[in-house]
Write a sequence for this structure.
């Protein structure tokens, strides 16, 4: 019989992956694709471009993968993960935790770029890190606390059991069963959850609404429920949220989250519009706790390259969902203007071969940001970052249609010509 504590933990994981499913369903809707036609693979932006070209093949691969996963593949995968982390645990385990009053949670690669200790000096000086996310951006005076150093061997065993149980239970839930491949994250999720149970004080995260955001929120809730803890949860924005809103009077969101955050005490965002987006779409309505304290900050960016150029320089901020549209804009610009064009693909969503074939300058280094005169972008964080150093942007929706190219092209030309007049 499963204990009440374990049932609560399993329920928290299912709630977390419901949000992951909502994100994938949003990207499928933006791509005008139905999961029934291409399969229910997680992390849609990574494969949707190929799926639109080969839907039957992708659907077939999905059905094979699902059978393999439920037929023993999941168990093999989790056991291999267990032995890998068991080996790492022997190296990193310590008998006594360093003294700390909270931690910055390094749960994704963006954390090192966003949570600069010089910009947020009041945040904890301990950074909690994961073995699968190489820490970058940890500066002098900040100590690293590896996840495995706070876990016992028993925690690894229990996380393995939890991963097995939740995979079996997901196949029996009608709404979630098609998305059972989402459980590939289960073992690592339960490891992190158990590690965070060992921390106290202020927890700082930059995850908005994914499985890690829900994990941190539910961990703080459990701390407060069990021990009446005074732990604080601080959320720092790492990406634009207003781009998920359709241009409708009621600010309807493209992202319909089934699991909202309830424990956030402090929110650091770019501006009041972004704060409103968090309040409307990320935080739970009618929650008992007051709304978080809100602070504004400007994300830092370091531009590289010559400050002067003979030609107008443009940076296209790319995403697989709007490749066709941006290619059309690029070709129109090259036909009528002598411009120098850069293309920066999304850091986690791969670009297609069509992008690589064009004669713009591809920026493959995720940490390289060129000096330009104008951005052409969907509502990306880079729009805010470049605006912070005085560089404007011509912004289009993420799911923009190629038919909208002529009007957007004229708008972009007007921005270019207006800026050129200002420089004379």
């Amino acid at each position: 019989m499963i204990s009440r504590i374990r049932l609560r933990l399993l329920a928290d994981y299912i709630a977390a992956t419901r949000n992951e499913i909502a994100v994938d369903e949003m990207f499928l809707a933006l791509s005008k694709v139905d999961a029934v036609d291409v399969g229910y693979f997680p992390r849609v932006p990574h494969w949707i471009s190929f799926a639109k070209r080969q839907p039957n093949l992708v659907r077939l691969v999905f059905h094979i993968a699902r059978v393999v996963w439920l037929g023993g593949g999941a168990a093999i995968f989790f056991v291999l993960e267990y032995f890998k982390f068991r080996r790492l645990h022997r190296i990193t385990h310590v008998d006594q935790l360093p003294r700390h009053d909270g931690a910055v949670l390094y749960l994704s690669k963006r954390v090192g770029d966003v949570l600069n200790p010089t910009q947020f000096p009041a945040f904890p000086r301990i950074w909690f890190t994961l073995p699968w996310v190489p820490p970058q951006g940890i500066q002098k005076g900040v100590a690293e606390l590896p996840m495995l150093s706070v876990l016992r061997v028993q925690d690894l065993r229990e996380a393995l059991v939890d991963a097995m149980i939740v995979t079996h239970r997901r196949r029996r839930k009608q709404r979630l069963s098609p998305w059972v491949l989402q459980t590939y994250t289960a073992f690592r999720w339960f490891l992190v959850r158990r590690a965070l149970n060992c921390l106290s004080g202020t927890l700082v995260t930059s995850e908005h609404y994914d499985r890690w955001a829900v994990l941190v929120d539910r961990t703080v809730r459990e701390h407060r429920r069990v021990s009446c803890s005074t732990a604080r949860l601080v959320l720092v924005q790492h990406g634009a949220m207003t781009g998920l809103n359709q241009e409708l009077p009621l600010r309807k969101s493209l992202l319909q989250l089934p699991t909202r955050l309830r424990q956030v005490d402090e929110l650091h965002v770019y501006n009041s519009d972004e704060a409103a987006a968090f309040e409307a779409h990320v935080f739970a309505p009618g929650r008992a706790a007051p709304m978080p304290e809100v602070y504004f900050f400007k994300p830092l960016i370091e531009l590289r390259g010559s400050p002067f150029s003979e030609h107008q320089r443009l940076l296209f901020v790319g995403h697989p969902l709007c490749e066709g549209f941006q290619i059309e804009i690029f070709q129109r610009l090259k036909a009528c203007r002598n411009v120098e064009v850069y293309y920066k693909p999304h850091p986690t969503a791969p670009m297609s071969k069509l992008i690589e074939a064009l004669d713009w300058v591809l920026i493959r280094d995720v940490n390289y940001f060129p000096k330009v005169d104008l951005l052409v972008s969907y509502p990306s964080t880079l729009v805010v970052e470049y605006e912070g150093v005085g560089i404007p942007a011509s912004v289009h929706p993420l799911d923009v249609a190629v038919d909208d190219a002529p009007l957007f092209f004229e708008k972009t030309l007007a921005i270019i010509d207006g800026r050129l007049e200002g420089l004379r």
Residues 246-251, 420-424 have pLDDT under 50 and may be disordered. DSSP finds 13 helices and twelve strands in the chain. Residues 288 and 332 are 53 Å apart (CA to CA).
